[in-house]
Amino acid sequence: MSRYSVILDADTCTRCMACVAKCKKVNKFPARVYLVEPALAPATRSGVPHRFLHSCHHCAEPKCLAACPQEAMVLAGNGVVRVRAEKCNGCAACVEACPWHIPVVPGEAGPAVKCTLCDGLAAQGEEPACVKICPSKALRLVELNDLSGTRREEYARTILLHPFLKM
Prior knowledge:
Elements: E1 4-8, H1 18-27, E2 39-40, E3 51-52, H2 63-67, E4 73-75, E5 81-83, H3 93-97, H4 117-120, H5 129-133, E6 139-143, H6 149-160, H7 162-165
């Protein structure tokens, strides 16, 4: 089963925030929840801050799922990690367990929310709403399992680390 993620090309992104608005609308998130938000990376040696997107990788063995004491996190048949809101108490164990701290707990009592790739559209061959709406095509949906070892290294260097390495 393939694992998908949305990646951002920081050089192409115009910071128009169309992806953020579309994500909020499609998922009916409150104003304070940003799942598609380029987060500020530490400033480079030149002092210029860069932006990058942290997207859920919908792991084959999700640490967030294993850490949840309420069994609110589930791995769906299409490979998407989801939050069962009715079971989530907002303890944020999933956030702490996730290597990228992807789930968001918007209030004191939860429930946690996270990207579901628009209900797993990727497994059906469709792009999530944030990718579709991006006018500069800076967002891309990738199948992580299809990346060879060399391509994974390139992905990490050019997409994940690029904002940090740029001078």
